[in-house]
């Protein structure tokens, strides 16, 4: 397939800057972009997105939970739509690109198609999903959950720090929380979902590649482990008479590293706490988190099993009592093989070098994969930094990713 269209790099970059100005230095923060979902800044960003979609010639509607949907009508109105999108809400002091690139790149790609006059069979919808980050209420993917039928009453009853429920926050922002089920899209209405997102890691940079094709989204398992030993005197207790919970934790941490490496997954102990916490007291208790991720659910289960076995073995040997609590288990998502192939083919056609890689973070695509074929394009992040004012992706890389998105959308919708 020849390249039949080009995106407009300067125009795309201008929109990234303009959207980035909304919420810049807000909420008393000096740096970065703060547009918490349903905040005034988010509402302003939504206005910007709607205006840009309209300028680009898309038909815009907003569903009951605030998902903004811009549609380029295809020749066959009954054919399932090809969907692309991401989010424009941010964390506290976030960057210019997380989420924004997927929405603005999607608009730019569809605008280019519209301008070129190419007629496609399937309609294309660009979606800006509500509250991907989940910063305010502690749970994210609200818009994509609503669209796929996974939003529930319990989530709408969650309260923020000021005691405002999710449902109230939606109403305050001008949406109709009671009608959230009307946001559901049937699987047969959607042909595929494609999301372009910054990588938020260093793999593409390491390989000197502007774009990558995602194969799987690694779902996390979170364990909370409590190890109970005995808090004895650090001077009076010989080494062979101790029940040191901290040492047991250290052994578990090394096992998490070994097991994750063996299975080619990732494992992290990110939160630790030892008690009583005195310089001259042997730690009697250690409480810590374990985050285990893998793109393959079966292999992840094996990782979890091996970590459990290791904890048991270490604690038996050290005469320590362990409690393990599974706090969260999100299923990994596998990208559609045909979309992965098509994205690689698209890159090859445009002489854009690329690689396949797994995705470590969660995205709206994690929800969309429950109802349709899903694929993701990753764009290089400078130094892998994200959720931070220093988050950066070069103008040219944004354009290359968007060019791949454009080519892929044309193929899916033709
Ligand atoms: Zn994001």
Automatic annotation (TrEMBL):
<keyword id="KW-0479">Metal-binding</keyword>
<dbReference type="InterPro" id="IPR002933">
    <property type="entry name" value="Peptidase_M20"/>
</dbReference>
<feature type="binding site">
    <location>
        <position position="197"/>
    </location>
    <ligand>
        <name>Zn(2+) 1</name>
    </ligand>
</feature>
<protein>
    <submittedName>
        <fullName>Zn-dependent hydrolase</fullName>
    </submittedName>
</protein>
<dbReference type="InterPro" id="IPR011650">
    <property type="entry name" value="Peptidase_M20_dimer"/>
</dbReference>
<feature type="domain" description="Peptidase M20 dimerisation">
    <location>
        <begin position="218"/>
        <end position="316"/>
    </location>
</feature>
<feature type="binding site">
    <location>
        <position position="133"/>
    </location>
    <ligand>
        <name>Zn(2+) 2</name>
    </ligand>
</feature>
<dbReference type="Pfam" id="PF07687">
    <property type="entry name" value="M20_dimer"/>
</dbReference>
<dbReference type="InterPro" id="IPR036264">
    <property type="entry name" value="Bact_exopeptidase_dim_dom"/>
</dbReference>
<feature type="binding site">
    <location>
        <position position="87"/>
    </location>
    <ligand>
        <name>Zn(2+) 1</name>
    </ligand>
</feature>
<feature type="binding site">
    <location>
        <position position="98"/>
    </location>
    <ligand>
        <name>Zn(2+) 1</name>
    </ligand>
</feature>
<feature type="binding site">
    <location>
        <position position="387"/>
    </location>
    <ligand>
        <name>Zn(2+) 2</name>
    </ligand>
</feature>
<feature type="binding site">
    <location>
        <position position="98"/>
    </location>
    <ligand>
        <name>Zn(2+) 2</name>
    </ligand>
</feature>
<dbReference type="GO" id="GO:0046872">
    <property type="term" value="F:metal ion binding"/>
</dbReference>
<dbReference type="Pfam" id="PF01546">
    <property type="entry name" value="Peptidase_M20"/>
</dbReference>
<comment type="similarity">
    <text>Belongs to the peptidase M20 family.</text>
</comment>
<dbReference type="GO" id="GO:0016813">
    <property type="term" value="F:hydrolase activity, acting on carbon-nitrogen (but not peptide) bonds, in linear amidines"/>
</dbReference>
<dbReference type="InterPro" id="IPR010158">
    <property type="entry name" value="Amidase_Cbmase"/>
</dbReference>
<keyword id="KW-0862">Zinc</keyword>
<keyword id="KW-0378">Hydrolase</keyword>
